[in-house]
Write a structure and sequence with these properties.
single chain, 746 residues, alpha/beta, Immunoglobulin-like, Rossmann fold, 4 domains, 9-stranded mixed β-sheet, 7-stranded parallel β-sheet, globular
Length: 746
């Protein structure tokens, strides 16, 4: 009997009388519970053996019946089963979006006496290094669920036999990424491979990693090597495909990727199905719980008990002990430190007042119109307004901020540090950096300020010149993960040493400081509040009309405008914003007939990511989505907006939220890193990163509040920001800390 009501299903293909012959047998059918309660996974149990199936396959008759359009979500499923000798029962289970598994079908079976014995499932001992971190993270993700139930989920997933699928003739091809492991960057999985059809042209190639969001892949790219194996295959020269799919925030592991090919005849075929284990290399990841021997012991014991319930042998004690030691070492290396709240630095009055002549060399990672360069520009401008303070700027990359610094009286020089950043060893790094340092007049420097963790090299320059330095850290990603695509691994310790060598390391978010706490043993870390220039914003509001600004930038003066401000890149999550617009498109049209709504993304920079977003917008007919290039006129977009949206996967303490709050905008934001320190849940709509469903729901609520004239969240956010981060109280603290750091080596 079904455990959970509401699922409609039929098992249409199965052996007669449920008697299985030796070998493998296909089971197929359809399953449906509604557009909002679709299947996220499917498995069969043959007595105690779990076998994963392929769900969410096109089933034209049922899909049209339930959806009145072809889908997704799709309702078809298949399983490939090989019951072992003596198996007596088959159960089918479905997983819903909440992560809950429900049994929907059960039957007695018989198996031919010539069937093979049940396969060896291994033992618990050899699996512990992988299972322990999985269960630890699941406890963080679902703290209200019983540990035993979570352990059962982890063990059953580990025992599950996957079903993958490769092209069958007349299709030919290979899925090259992902394989057993899928690498995720900011919630997105990259796909590469090739596929061709013997007799027909492939019109579209699409992929899904969940039930409803189908991504179009770029197919038909040149591929030169296929002819070496398939010399007579039509279309082989342009059979390459690339693309991305979004992975849901609550995706189970192993995850299932499906790739479909639509032919010119209109037929849609599954060409690849691949089970893989997601691994995050950039972006939000479910953290391990704080380091605790008790938590570790409870986790291991829960796995032991779950293994017994699943009839999984324990294995050799020596192997188990080695596995537990390895799991504990990994837990120690990756677990966050126990939460410690660091209050903002309170400098004594005499230190705050001790301003004096100060010659500053400011090193910033780039000169783009981005939050970090604007942050350090405002600090530098404040410093130059103090008696006797001068600022010079160096950067490894030129950009439009150069003119901003120069116009404010701060000369800018571009330094070439590429050889140092590509060095194969710390010694080579130091040698290359020495050449850079010789081009700087250190006799005219009292203090070096390095802006962002990417400017770690500047701290080493100051150290070699025996000058004090202050490192401003705006990142919230661990060093080794952040720099993996940027630096040779041999330089990771060099980055860590910059944190220890800097006279002061300044954070504006306690959450960011916690990431690097293990490097703060010299007592040089400081937490200081960021700032927002409220008076300047209020003056701008008084002087500018929103409708006029909309006309200036080609936007509809009558529309409700959602604005997403930030460099258009994976970390900022504009792909999730676009996905939410897709989800809302039809609902908003029906709910607000005739109401114009625009979604504006400010900060577009040319590249493959922007190309992919444009392709998605065009494919789904999202005419109301607009891209605006990076600009120095950011205040225009706060003023013309009705709702502000931040979709970032990682942020330390984003100035865009401070500014949007000061502009009295209702705010929707991901609740990552330092953002919950900045805004409370009654001051903004706070949502998990990468979750387009919760983002869409928050956007609907914010839109309804705006149209109803409800400004309570925006008013509270403005009051909180003015109270805690006013420029007149924050900037003097930063100036005093810099003076104090400079005085340490005078």
């Amino acid at each position: 009997m079904p455990e959970s009501p509401g699922w409609q299903f039929a098992v249409e293909i199965h052996p007669a009388n449920w008697h299985f012959p030796p070998g493998k047998t296909w089971i197929a059918g359809w399953l449906w519970a509604g557009e909002q309660r679709f299947a996220t996974d499917l498995r069969a149990w043959l007595d105690g053996r779990p076998i994963l199936g392929l769900h969410g396959l096109p089933k034209p008759t049922q899909d049209l019946q339930f959806l009145h359009h072809p889908g997704p979500p799709y309702s078809g499923f298949v399983l490939l089963l090989e019951p072992h000798a003596g198996a007596r029962e088959l159960r089918l289970e479905v997983r819903d979006p909440s992560g809950h598994w429900s049994e929907f079908f059960r039957t007695a079976i018989t198996v031919d006496a010539g069937a093979a014995a049940a396969p060896d499932q291994g033992d618990l001992a050899s699996r512990l290094p992988g299972l322990v971190p999985e269960l630890l993270r699941l406890q963080t993700q679902r703290p209200n669920q019983a540990l035993a139930a979570l352990a059962d989920e982890v063990v059953s997933a580990a025992l599950s036999e996957p079903l993958n699928s490769l092209p069958n003739p007349p299709f030919y091809g290979a899925l090259e990424e992902p394989r057993e492991t899928g690498w995720l960057r900011y919630g997105r999985l990259s796909l590469t491979g090739w596929v061709a059809h013997r007799t027909e042209k492939i019109r579209h190639l699409t992929a899904l990693a969940d039930a409803v969001q189908e991504s179009t892949l770029l197919h038909g790219l040149p591929r030169a090597d296929i002819g070496e194996v398939f010399a007579d295959l039509p279309g082989r020269e342009r059979s390459q495909f690339v693309g991305h799919v979004d992975l849901p925030a609550n995706q189970s592991a192993p995850a299932l990727l499906k790739v479909f090919a639509e032919l010119e005849s209109g037929e849609k075929h599954l060409v690849f199905a691949q089970r893989f284990t997601p691994r995050v290399i950039a972006g939000a990841e479910v953290p391990l719980p704080a380091l605790s021997r008790r938590t570790f012991a409870r986790t291991v014991w829960a796995l032991h008990q779950a293994a017994r319930r699943h009839h999984l042998p324990f294995g050799r004690l020596s192997v188990a002990l080695d596995g537990m030691r390895g799991a504990w070492r990994n837990y120690q290396a990756e677990a966050p430190a126990r939460p410690r709240r660091h209050g903002p630095e309170q400098l004594p009055p005499e230190t705050t007042a001790s301003a004096g002549p100060l010659r500053v060399l400011l090193a910033t990672h780039n000169l783009n119109f981005e939050g970090a360069p604007w942050f350090i520009f405002e600090l530098a401008r404040f410093l130059t307004q103090q008696p006797g303070v001068t600022v010079r700027v160096v950067a490894p990359q030129d950009g439009p901020m150069r003119a901003v610094f120069t116009a404010a009286g701060m000369p800018v020089e571009i330094l070439n540090v590429s050889k140092a950043l590509s060095a194969a060893s710390p010694a080579d790094f130091a040698e290359a950096l020495t050449v850079v340092g010789k081009g700087i007049d250190w006799s005219a420097v009292d203090l070096l300020i390095a802006n962002t963790m990417v400017s770690f090299w500047a701290v080493h320059l100051a150290k070699a010149a025996r000058k004090p330095s202050v490192l401003y850290v705006h990142e919230s990603s661990p060093i080794r993960r952040f720099f993996a695509p940027l630096l040779p691994p041999a330089l990771f310790p060099v980055v860590e040493d910059a944190f220890r060598s800097a006279t002061r390391v300044v954070f504006t978010a306690d959450a960011s400081r916690a990431v690097f706490d293990y490097l703060g043993d010299r007592g040089n870390f400081r937490l200081l509040p960021s700032w927002v220039d409220v008076a300047r914003i209020d003056a701008f509001v008084a002087a500018h009309d929103p409708a006029a600004l909309r006309r200036k930038h080609g936007l509809d003066p009558e529309a409700v405008i959602f604005v997403n401000i930030g460099s258009v890149c994976e970390r900022k999550g504009q792909h999730i914003f676009v996905r939410a617009i897709e989800l809302l498109k039809e609902e908003l049209r029906v709910t607000y007939p005739g109401r114009k709504i625009q979604f504006v993304m400010v900060g577009a920079r040319e590249g493959t990511y922007l190309d992919a977003l444009r392709q998605e917008v065009t494919l789904h007919g999202l005419d109301q989505a607009v891209f605006i290039p990076e600009t120095g006129e950011i205040f225009d977009f706060y003023r013309l907006a009705d709702v502000f949206v931040c979709t970032s996967f990682e942020e330390s303490f984003p100035r865009v939220l401070l500014e949007s709050a000061a502009f009295r905008l209702p705010i929707i934001s991901t609740n990552v890193n330092g953002i919950p320190e900045m805004l409370a849940s009654d001051e903004a709509w706070l949502i998990p990163p990468g979750d387009r469903y919760q983002l869409g729901e928050a956007m609907k609520q914010a839109l309804a509040a705006h149209l109803a004239g409800d400004t309570r969240r925006a008013d509270r956010a403005r009051a909180a920001v003015v109270r805690r981060y006013h420029v007149d109280s924050s900037l003097p603290l930063h100036a005093a800390l810099l003076q104090d750091a400079a005085a340490t080596r005078r």
